[in-house]
Design goal:
By secondary structure, the protein is α/β, with parallel strands linked by helices. The protein has helices at about 15-20, 40-45, 85-90, 100-110, 125-135, 155-170, and strands at about 1-5, 30-35, 55-60, 75-80, 110-115, 140. Helix 1 (about 15-20) packs across helix 6 (about 155-170) and helix 3 packs across helix 5 (about 125-135).
């Protein structure tokens, strides 16, 4: 699978870190883009992001990457964490950065685009932007961890969101808690 991962300046760098830890760069071509403030947030929340050396890293001010063109075949893009500002600019159709142009391309080419906002509460503008993006074909997957699987560490709690991201990408998430029919 050919994937684009993007990080914005929203809180929630742990979700990106856990996703990177769960993706195999030997099995997938992975491109990672950082917005202007993403690295600052990563530094404040994690200290340092551990990125496998096989992952291609890009800045947010270049159009010299293949995934900003519809002629390049990529399977999915995940923006995690996705700030509401980025979400709103995608909904408005602006394409003045690498992340925004790539998201626009994924929407216009009907490719999988997952947005993982962590911010709350939402205002009416946020909600309308989310609806606009869902109507345009994006998957909006708020970073809302689940607790019914008994997650007891911060990483395990974050992994409940990462498991849902992997499900949306049709990639295996073997440790994921799944509901089963109970014998009564």
């Amino acid at each position: 699978m050919k994937l684009v991962l993007a990080a914005t300046g929203a809180s929630g760098a742990i979700y990106l870190q856990r996703l990177l830890a769960r993706l195999d760069p030997q099995a997938h071509e992975i491109h990672l883009v950082f917005s202007t403030y993403a690295k600052q947030v990563v530094h404040e929340e994690l200290g340092e992001l551990v990125v496998p050396p096989e992952v291609h890293q890009h800045g947010d001010k270049t159009m010299n990457v293949p995934f900003v063109s519809g002629s390049a075949r990529f399977d999915a893009m995940v923006i995690v964490p996705c700030s509401m500002g980025t979400l709103g600019r995608i909904a408005a159709g602006t394409s003045d950065s690498t992340i925004l142009r790539a998201a626009d391309v994924f929407l216009k080419e009907r490719r999988k685009l997952l947005l993982v906002p962590r911010e709350m509460p939402w205002n009416l503008i946020h909600a309308r932007n989310v609806v606009t993006l869902i109507e345009a074909g994006a998957v909006v997957l708020p970073a809302s961890p689940s607790f019914y699987g008994g997650a007891s560490t911060l990483n395990a709690i974050a992994d409940t969101v990462v498991d849902r991201i992997l499900d949306q990408l049709d990639l295996p998430s073997p440790g994921m808690f799944r509901w089963k029919e109970s014998a009564e």
